[in-house]
Design a protein that fits this description.
By secondary structure, this protein is of the alpha+beta class. It is 37% helix and 22% strand. The longest helix has 25 residues. The protein is elongated.
Length: 336
């Protein structure tokens, strides 16, 4: 939602399908411990999607907002007056060595100025997540239930573009992120450049929860991709368009005692027993969305009711691809 400080990696509107009572959910950690948590306070980080001072992805427009407090000051760095806002942003990590003066030449209070700079959070990404995808999911979820729950066979496609873009969003937004991106980043930045071995001094961390150069660079790259995606551009957007062209969805229904789980990594691609790759996204305890290559039935979705044992097999795959926890609708059901 616009202006929110606590940013969910996995949307609250998505997890709501597993909620009970007053919007509580059961989560089970890797060690088997089960906890009941508020849906609004799980799977998020304060200002996770915000763009802040010093980030290499800041645009000139971002910098105009972030450094607006300096309009009536002179900034000097290493004996040189700095007026270019992008240059200023590139040296923000070394703010302690800036000289900041009033226009009359007297030294200014750097603490007050730094506090003002760090109050500015560019929340465009979080606001657009809500506007373009999260706020529409409740209505889309209701439409999915209405269209698929009484069917076994094929139905006409509906809302494929929104579904594909929502699927893409979840694929990239979890802590694991898209598997192709994650592998490429790891090979280059951790394998070749060894950025995971470069620790950021605590006093220089723009985001305190990223300890290494690798973690911080990965986060900045993803924020840049998110921003482009939300403005219909970039790698993520191209990925969604290609999937729209070459893949389709298969709705799998659980109508027995066993229900589907989800996790903190709700969309992922895995290799099936037959060697084919399939994308998965649990939609609710009763509906699982599979993504695969287009079939001969273009313009149609497949809908299949599956056995309890098949639901358990899918749940094991979902559990195996979770990062830290899975989400359950009922703690008394044998999900595996």
């Amino acid at each position: 939602m616009a202006g929110q400080k606590y940013h969910h990696l996995i949307p609250r509107t998505y997890n709501a399908a597993w909620a009970h009572g007053k919007d509580s959910i059961y989560i089970q950690y890797k060690d088997g411990e089960i906890d009941e948590r508020s849906n609004g306070n799980i799977g998020g980080v304060n200002d996770y999607h915000s763009i802040i001072a010093g980030m290499p992805i800041c645009t000139l427009e971002d910098c105009k907002k972030i450094y607006s407090v300096l309009i009536d000051y002179i900034v000097e760095y290493k004996g040189k007056v700095v007026t270019d806002l992008l240059e200023m942003n590139s040296i923000y990590w070394d703010f302690d060595n800036w000289n900041v003066k009033h226009l009359d030449g007297n030294l200014a209070s750097k603490k007050r100025i730094k506090d003002a700079i760090e109050q500015v959070k560019i929340k465009e990404i979080e606001d657009l997540w809500s506007k373009k995808y999260e706020n529409g999911w409740v209505k889309e979820f209701e439409e999915i239930q209405k269209r698929v729950q009484a069917v076994d066979g094929v139905i006409p496609e509906f809302d494929k573009e929104y579904l594909m873009k929502f699927f893409t969003m979840l694929d990239w937004r979890s802590g694991s992120s898209n598997s192709v991106f994650a592998s490429a980043f790891d090979n280059l930045c951790n394998g070749a450049l060894r950025l995971n071995e470069v620790e950021i001094p605590e006093e220089e961390r723009e985001l305190k929860f990223f300890e290494s150069a690798s973690e911080y660079m990965r986060h900045c790259l993803l924020l840049n991709m998110y921003r482009k995606y939300l403005n219909d551009d970039g790698v993520m957007y191209d990925n969604a368009l290609k999937n729209l062209q070459f893949t389709n969805f298969h709705f799998l229904l659980a109508k027995g005692k066993t229900t589907f789980i989800t996790s903190d990594n709700p969309v992922f691609t895995y290799e099936r027993d037959d060697g084919l790759k399939q994308g998965l996204m649990p939609i609710s305890p009763r509906i699982l969305l599979g993504q695969g290559k287009n079939s001969e039935k273009n313009g149609m979705y497949y809908v299949s009711t599956i056995t309890d044992e098949a639901v358990k097999r899918y749940n094991r795959t979902i559990r195996d691809n979770a990062i830290n926890y899975i989400v359950l609708d009922d703690t008394t059901i044998m999900h595996f």
